Amino acid sequence: MIDDEALGDDAGYRQEHQPLSAKSYPIWIIGFGLIVLLAFGYSSLSLPRHVSQARTLARADRLDQAGDYVQAESEYRTLLAGDSGSEAGRLGMAHAIFADSDQKNDVIGLALLQGMRLDKYDWRRLQPVMPLEYEKLFVTQEER
Hints:
66% of the residues lie in helices and 0% in strands.
């Protein structure tokens, strides 16, 4: 601890400015603390749903990679029912639909990709299973 005599003129500062008590903090600090607590509470409440969706996505991806496209489609449907905006789910579902031997559902796979921007890794995943007539509907970076 610093000796008050060593502080010289600043020694009186401690006497004039007492430390804040727990009830005397500025309102903005209390408000900010409450906002942080509310954000933490909300994220804690939504965590189980996100964990469940991540597990469903992982299960669907494993089934898709194993070639069980019918079961993969079922898992992707479950995922998309809970989160229709999941790009990973839409991409995986489109892959499973295109890879499945039943070609009447290919239009659904194309509809799932509508509005998505595919990077080169997603394109490499889809291209081998996508019908050739659908490939020409996509614009590549080189064509822009």
